[in-house]
Amino acid sequence: MAKQLLSLLFLLFSISTPLNLCIGTTTTTTAQNQQFREAPQFYNSPNCPSISDESDSSEATICSSQAVHVAMTLDSTYIRGSMAAILSVLQHSSCPQNIIFHFVTSATSYGGALSPRATISHSFPYLRFRIYPFDDKAVFGLISTSIRSALDCPLNYARSYLANLLPTCVKRVVYLDSDLILVDDIAKLAATQLPGDTVLAAPEYCNANFTAYFTPTFWSNPSLSLTFSNRNACYFNTGVMVIDLDRWREGDYTTKIEEWMELQKRMRIYELGSLPPFLLVFAGKIAPVDHRWNQHGLGGDNFRGLCRNLHPGPVSLLHWSGKGKPWARLDANRPCALDALWAPYDLLRTPFTLD
Question: Residue 69 CB: number of other CB atoms within 10 A?
């Protein structure tokens, strides 16, 4: 019993929270009142390859092998973080005009002048991007209640469907959460080697207590407990991933994730949201990425959101996973020291903004 309690406490205070929260009435109203400034335009350096052919057609551009593809989800609760993340990606890229963004949004979240397309186009009129509506109903029946209702939102699971949503000519994509900023060239991350038939790359954290991510029911089942046999399974954060979409499609990994979600509906094998199915399918099978590409946990734990320091070592990406978000703490005049690193990328228009 004491061991189970320790495992639960670990889950509550150590795990980085999957990002997209369900949008309640209050948060939606607040988000819809937000307006954002236009960001500066960034240009390619002279040695950047062209991703457009002579026709400069949208289809030819999006299928270019020279493009860097970035996928994110968009919702009104986290749109402020998303805007900052986009700006940081562009600002630190040597070839920003070669970046194509793929935004996945709930089909029912936006409309009219407050659509994600209008919001993005206003602040980034030069940006190459596409928007993909995600049908919440497609995954809603597979979602089990977790330790926090915020983890049960369908858009949290959209990352499992990128291979189905994005054009088949897109071979590789970098998936990013919205509560982060880059301070390095994303092309370096996108170029991560995926040897053999490896599908996914992400920073691994093998010092985490991996058994705590699953219930005693899982570990006591003779068949289920063999899931990770012959695999050096480690925790990885699904907020920063490099995904080979061709290999994902060939292996039908969306179905594999859904099968674990269906089992979870029948027997309780984990307590979190979209993270455990990824671990069940991929842990021990991913290509490692240097920790500099996900300095995560800056939002503190899942409930108190206390300030945290950077992990030792170099930094290419800062990730405010956890409860505390930099924009919320800054607005409340209770910022953590590292929130000052996020503030320069904030595009929110305030009454005192000078354009």
Answer: 24
Say if strands 204-205 and 317-319 run parallel, antiparallel, or are unpaired: unpaired
- 355, with CB counted inside 10 A (0-12, 13-18, 19+), is exposed
Going along the chain, which residue ranges are E strands?
Answer: 68-74, 99-106, 128-134, 172-176, 180-182, 200-202, 204-205, 235-236, 240-244, 287-288, 317-319
**Contacts of residue 183, Cβ cutoff 8 Å, sequence gap at least 6:** 88, 92, 315, 316, 317, 318, 341
Residue the block writes with tokens 């963004």: 101
Per-residue model confidence as pLDDT tens digits over 220-235: 999 999 999 989 999 9
Q: pTM for this one? A: 0.88
**pLDDT > 70? residue 7:** no
Contact in structure between 87 and 56 (CB atoms under 8 Å): no
**Helices and strands (H and E) in the chain: how many:** 14, 11
Among 211, 189, 185, CA closest to 201: 189
Q: 122: helix, coil or strand?
A: helix
C-alpha to C-alpha distances, 86 to 58, 173, 177, nearest whole angstrom:
20, 15, 11
Query: How far apart, in whole angstroms, are the C-alpha atoms of residue 38 and residue 349?
Result: 9
The residue type at 95: C
| pLDDT per position as a tens digit, 30-52 | 455 789 999 999 999 999 999 97
3-class DSSP assignment, residue 235: strand
Q: By three-state DSSP, how is residue 201 classified? A: strand
Q: Residue 192: enclosing H or E segment and its boundaries?
A: none
Distances in whole angstroms, Cα of residue 262 to Cα of each of 130, 146, 258, 313: 31, 14, 6, 40
Strand runs labelled E in 266-311: 287-288
Q: What are the residues whose beta carbons fall under 8 Å from the beta carbon of 4, sequence distance 6 or more?
A: 216
Give CB contacts under 8 A, 24+ apart, made by 42-46: 42/90, 42/91, 42/93, 42/96, 42/97, 43/96, 43/97, 44/94, 44/95, 44/96, 44/97, 44/98, 45/94, 45/95
d(CA 115, CA 71): 18
